[in-house]
Each structure stands twice: as C-alpha cells, then as structure tokens.
Amino acid sequence: MKVKLLCAIGALLFYTPSFGQNPVPNSSFENWTNGEPDAWFTSNLPDGEGSNITRTSPGYIGEFALKGSVSPYLGSPEFPYIPLLESNTSDFGFPVTEAYPYLSLYYKFQPADTSDVVSIFVGMMDNEGTVFGGGFSEISSPSDTFRLLQVPMTYGAGQPYRAFISMTINSYGVSGLPTIGGFFVVDDISMGTGLSPTDEIANQAVGQFATYPNPATSTITIAFSLFKDSFVSVDIYDLLGNNVSDVFAGELHDGNYSLPANLGSLDSGMYMCRVTTAGSTLTQKVWVVRS
Questions:
Q1: How confident is the prediction for the chain on average, in pLDDT?
Q2: Which domains does the chain have, with CATH numbers?
Q3: According to the model, what pLDDT value does residue 264 have?
Q4: Distance between the two ends of the chain, CA-based, in angstroms?
Q5: Cβ pair 82, 174 in contact under 8 A
Q6: pTM for the model
C-alpha cells in the first residue's frame, strides 16, 4: 500500500492555500497514557510484553519527546523489533481542513548501521478516504542534538478531510532489516507553511527538498534550498548503495536551486536521490518507470 501511495504522491502538483492552527494531535508528545502517546498508534506489544516506543526527556518543546528504538525481539534476540509510530487512531488519522505545504518536525537519530534510515510518510485524504496528496522523506545522517526536518507536501485535486503520519526505521543493507541498537527521537510535529532555520539547526545547510516528476521516465528535476553557503553534492544511488549518477558537486550560495538529472540509462526500479552538505544529508526515493 505504501509503495503505491508514494508513487501516486510523487506525480502530483504543488499546492499552497491559506493555513490555520497546527492540526497534529499531541504534537509534542507531552501526553501519555499507560506508556502510550495519546492520539498515536505504536509498535508496542500489549500487556507490557515489549515496548520500543517510549517517552524520553528532555524534549525539544516541553518536557518530553518520543523515542523509537530497534531492540531485540522477544524470543528471538537476534531478530530486530522495529519501531513504528503512526497517527492511525480509531478513525484513521486526524481531521484537517487545509492542504498544508509542509510537515515539520525536530529529530535526533543514532543509527546502529550506516545503511539504516528513518522513513517519514505523510498523506492527505478526502472524505471518501482517497489519498490525493502528501509527502515522504528519509533521515540518514546521525545527530545527537535536535535538528529540523521539513517534508514538502504535494497535491492533486481533492478536499482535505483527514491526514496521517507514519515513522519507522528502515534499512538499505543486504538483509533489509535495521540493526539492533539504533534509535530516533522526535518532537514538535507540525503542519504549516514551513519554518525558518533556528539556532538549533545552525549547522544544517540544506532545507526544502523535492524531486519531480516521480515516477519518472527519462529526466527529473531535483529542487532544494540552502540556508547558507555550502559545498553541495547531489547524487543518485541504487538500493545496493552504488552511485549511478553524479548530478552535481560544487560550492553554492544560499538560495533555491533546481537541477536536472538524466535517468535515461537506468533500469526500471527504485533509486535514492541524495543531497549532501557538510552539515546535513537529505534523501528521497525516486522511481524510474520504463514503458
């Protein structure tokens, strides 16, 4: 379902109406009941048999934040128990009345292996449950301090009714499973017009990041913004970690950029587009479709 969702989202048009209050419930994870964050679904096992989503302190905003850890699975200590956080309440997601252009959040990430990433999905549905927009991003660079991530959201035709958010740890390693010991911390999730860089993300140079069209047949445009002057490399990798296209490498000033990338030599399948600076790395999935 998620693969189909991402393919649909990638081909949609960008849309930015007016915006109201942040609709994400319990967005700073201050409220917990019986070890569970209010208004969120987690991968924690029932009756206290196992918890890999826990409350941690201090948070970026307020006293608490949420921590998702890759821990040993009960009865199979060598098998990873993968954390999952979803805003899937009893009515699936949460109510919205606006098509917000960004999902923003603050995070820490300590992977136990360099092939591990935090994957974030956000989707927008109409009143019939049809997904007509959303976004996707991945975190690959370790950080032991809170950093800002902004996920651009794109839309087709539809009236916002409910939205959902999902976070987990994935791996691009040979096994496809994340390594035990890795974890992420997340706090202050919001939907809105996007945030300006702050002191907490002073070392992060790259901000907004999008690829389109996605899926693509021959070429894509890689769009991103820089908060400050930086050396930037833009590359495309296959799922084995091989660099299949050097799109750009060089010094750039702060501002907005759109770079074309030729995909004509690549086979059909999924690839990773990566924008790297001295202070940050952002990654997005790119699908290549051959007729």
A1: 82
A2: 2-192 (2.60.120.260), 203-288 (2.60.40.2550)
A3: 87
A4: 22
A5: no
A6: 0.64
- Please give the pLDDT value at position 121: 92
Q: What is the 3-state secondary structure (H, E, C) of 130-177?
A: CEEEEEEEEECCCEEEEEEEEEECEECCCCCCEEEEEEEEEECCCCCC
Q: Of 183, 181, 171, 169, which Cα lies nearest the Cα of 77?
A: 181
Structure confidence by residue, pLDDT tens digits, 110-154:
999 999 999 999 999 999 889 999 999 999 889 888 888 888 888
Would you state the torsion angle of the CA atoms of residues 250, 256, 258, 259, taken in this order, to the nearest 10 degrees? 10
Beta-bridged to residue 143, according to DSSP, are: 109
Per-residue tokens: 243 = 């660099």
Supply the DSSP string of the chain, one letter for each residue: -HHHHHHHHHTSBP------S---TTTT---EETTEETT-EE-PBGGGTB-SEEEESS-SSSS-EEEEE-EEETTEEEEEE--EEE---TTSSEE-SS--SEEEEEEEEE-SSTTEEEEEEEEEE-TTS-EEEEEEEEE-S-EEEEEEEEEE-EE-S----EEEEEEEEEE-SSSSSPPTT-EEEEEEEEEES-----GGGTT--EEEEEEESSSBSSEEEEEEEESS-EEEEEEEE-TTS-EEEEEEEEEE-SEEEEEEEE-TTSPSEEEEEEEE-SS-EEEEEEEE---
Q: What angle (nearest 5°) sits at the alpha carbon of residue 256, between those of residues 228 and 20?
A: 95
